[in-house]
Design goal:
alpha+beta; Cytochrome Bc1 Complex, Chain D, domain 2; 5-stranded mixed β-sheet; globular; binds calcium ion
Length: 737
């Protein structure tokens, strides 16, 4: 017995030593957040429909996701303005204890700021000091991180009738008591637990209901949006965005209509896509909710729907009756989407004079590069001007309302560089609409991608869903080889901030930003446009000219949108820092795109809040050590390494970056310690680091596969080390330097 106990103790000690000697970067792990305090929120007034409808009377608050139901993200506050913005300084900051991407828009009401951080964690803090009032951790299992295409992000909460609503990465909609942060109810929104559904978007609340959709189209899911009773969590309606298995009854009449636009193929088996992962906007003028619908699953229409068809309601804006969920109208931005051109981007509601007539319009700049102005009463297309370089289509035919595709960009037979790529000409990073000036301040990118058909489909004409990974239908496993073969013709990725006139298509001013993957935008009546960028600079621009009036170096790349609010007569501007999201896949940029601040200094999740005369300072930045350790290379064939590359591109690239070059927020595998190399197979197959989001892949990979991936990672690390040392002999990736 004693021997047995000693043996157990020895095993426990060994396990403990194993865990403590592993490379567990605390910034990678899920942070331990401070325990909930007993402090109760100083009573915030009740937010209800009437209050949000009357938001103009309280410009100091930011009551809903885009400030008001209209989601214009343009603040009437003027204390911080063109004349004095040079005096803007940091009032306070708070470390979020994570280096994962921060994407949330806070809600600020009556002195309290409610927002989310990585892993769907919710914070209620005093907006003037950063002091924590309460926190809520939905305890998302770490292995769910694998199910998210674009990091363990969350874009914010809804605050409504004494509750705070948040969607968790693992698919729950959660209602918290706004005063204490205690759980009131939660529901599981996911219809199929086997599929990789997530939630990253902010719920919207109106008319006694909470609306939420899901992410997951890249992994092969079917999109839908559900309305829940805000009080009880009971389901009120559900609207599917794409048809399901044709052998089963249609869930609602719109599916019968949509099914006629899907022809041949087995899209329901792969998923269909059409996830509504970001934008759901409530319109009190018509008691409608607008769904911004995502891309197809798979991306390629010839696999998804080989008989052709528009594949409704992919890449569409769909207007539903908010009470019943029945459809009033739709407009499809990209019929038969073939490029991951989601229309999930933020939608703003305004009244504008169009062709001499006042119209209630909806504004959206989806990924596909055209800026849409749509009549909210009936879905009539009023304008569709390009706001970026667009090569997939020549224009939108205003007679038919349809884009005219460019046959030269068809990638069915041969790979093609296409603009925009899957990161979009505009992604979810917020825009700001200045109704008075008739302008939209818009974060834009010209970011190409080389599309080609999936290897398996080219060889066999067949395509089979991979339940454990992406289901894109394009050539992804051999992507690196395609890049190498076509690098000389790659258009350079570029980023811009534009003041764009949606009615004329005129660019009033354009600021070119060195990197393409930048943050959301805020405009103010003080004459300013705020944006944080990839190089870590938070800038205030003159909204009339684009001239830089103020800059602050945060030393961390930004994606999240700034907001502004006023408390006790003092105006503040806030922003979350920390990048990632969809660009995790691209990893470290190639010349001439400069490294983001997250690579140079590290990726620090922080809430920063500024005011005039603020004197707080951030900790001094430190430069990240980018040396690659010497590699122990196994004696394996080039073929084995090449097979490892295909596996890496199938299972690892989304997070760890193209050609194993991390973009900064996820571990760079070229810099693994000896201990991590020694436990590589356990990490990948057994999930020993699953708390960080690095789940087990034993459902998809064999030990031989893992060894091949490991050989490839080692080979890439060795090659980059040699290149850094000036030795280019035999290097396949000299273009990386
Ligand atoms: Ca997508």
């Amino acid at each position: 017995m004693r021997a047995f106990i000693l043996a157990v103790i020895a095993i426990l000690v060994a396990v403990l030593i194993y865990f403590f000697t592993m490379d567990t970067d605390p910034q990678q792990a899920q942070p331990t957040i401070e325990p909930e305090t007993t402090q109760v929120v100083p009573t915030i007034g009740l937010i209800d429909d009437a209050r949000i409808n009357n938001a103009a009377s309280e410009p100091g608050n930011w009551l809903a996701h885009g400030r008001t139901y209209e989601e214009l993200r343009f603040s009437p506050l003027t204390q911080i303005n063109r004349e004095n913005v040079a005096e803007l300084g940091l009032a306070w900051y708070r470390d979020m204890g994570t280096n994962r991407a921060q994407e949330a828009t806070p809600i600020v009401v009556d002195g309290i700021m409610f927002f989310t951080s990585a892993w769907s964690r919710v914070f209620a803090i005093k907006a003037t000091t950063g002091e924590i009032v309460w926190t809520y951790d939905p305890k998302v299992p770490g292995e769910v991180g694998r199910r998210a295409c674009c990091d363990v992000v969350n874009r914010g909460v809804a605050v409504y009738k004494g509750r705070v609503y948040v969607g968790s990465l693992d698919g729950r909609l959660i209602a918290l008591d706004a005063a204490t942060g205690s759980l009131v109810w939660e529901v599981n929104t996911i219809i199929d637990p086997e599929r990789f559904y997530t939630i990253t978007g902010a719920p919207r609340a109106a008319g006694g209901k909470v609306f939420i959709g899901n992410g997951g189209a890249e992994f092969g899911v079917r999109g839908y949006v559900t309305a829940y009773d805000a009080e009880t969590g009971d389901q009120i309606w559900r609207f599917y965005t794409v048809p399901g298995d044709p052998s089963l009854p249609f869930e609602h009449p719109e599916m019968e209509m949509a099914a006629k636009t899907w022809k041949g193929g087995e899209w329901w088996e792969i998923g269909g896509g059409g996830t509504v992962w970001n934008s759901i906007v409530y319109d009190p003028d018509f008691n409608q909710v607008y769904l911004g619908v995502g891309n197809g699953s798979p991306w390629t229409r010839v696999i998804r729907s080989p008989g052709g068809g528009d594949n409704l309601f992919l890449s569409s804006i769909v207007a539903l009756d908010a009470d019943t969920g029945s459809m009033n109208w739709y407009y499809q931005t990209t019929p038969g989407d073939n490029w991951d051109y989601t229309a999930v981007q933020d939608m703003a509601l305004a009244e504008m004079e169009v062709d001499g007539k006042m119209r209630k319009v909806l504004l959206q700049a989806p990924k596909n590069g055209f800026f849409y102005v749509i009549d909210r009463s009936d879905g009539e297309l009023l304008r569709a001007h390009p706001f970026a370089t667009v090569t997939w289509a020549t224009h939108v035919d205003m007679e038919t309302g349809r884009p005219v595709e460019n046959p030269e960009m068809d990638y069915l037979e041969k790979e093609k560089w296409v603009l925009p790529g899957p990161l979009g000409a505009h992604n979810w990073q917020a825009m700001s609409v200045d109704v008075e000036a008739g302008l939209v301040y818009l974060p834009v990118q010209d970011n190409p991608f080389i599309y080609g058909m999936a290897e398996e489909w080219k060889k066999t004409g067949l395509y089979k869903r991979n339940p454990g990974s992406m289901n894109l239908g394009i050539a992804f496993g051999t992507l690196v080889q395609i890049f190498v073969n076509n690098i000389s013709t790659q258009p350079t990725p570029k980023g811009y901030l534009k003041a764009f006139d949606p009615l004329t298509g005129e660019e009033r001013w354009v600021v070119e930003i060195p990197h393409y993957w930048n943050g959301g935008v805020l405009g103010t009546a003080g004459g300013l446009v705020f944006q944080g960028d990839a190089l870590g600079i938070l800038s205030a621009y003159d909204k009339e000219t684009g001239e830089v009036l103020w800059q602050f170096n945060t030393y961390t790349s930004m994606l999240a949108p700034p907001i502004t609010f006023q408390i006790d007569g003092v105006q503040y501007v806030s922003i979350l820092t920390g990048t990632g999201g969809g660009d995790l896949f691209s990893g470290a940029p190639l010349d001439p795109v400069p490294n983001p601040a997250s690579l140079t200094y590290g990726n620090y999740g922080r809430m920063l809040v500024f005011k005039l005369g603020g004197t707080e300072t951030l900790p001094a930045p430190t430069i990240v050590d980018d040396t690659i350790p010497e590699q122990v290379l196994a004696d394996v064939s080039d073929e084995e390494v090449a097979r490892g590359e295909v596996l890496f591109n199938t299972y690892c690239v989304l997070c760890h970056g193209l050609v194993v070059r991390s973009g900064g927020s996820i571990k760079d595998l070229r810099r693994m310690s000896d201990e991590v190399h020694a436990s590589f197979a356990q990490i990948v197959l057994e999930g020993t680091l699953s708390a960080n989001g690095m789940a087990a892949f034993d459902d998809s990979l064999t030990i031989e596969d893992v060894e091949r991936i490991h050989h490839y990672v080692r080979a890439r690390a060795h090659e980059d080390r040699e290149l850094a040392l000036g030795n280019q002999e035999g290097a396949r990736f000299t273009w990386l330097q």
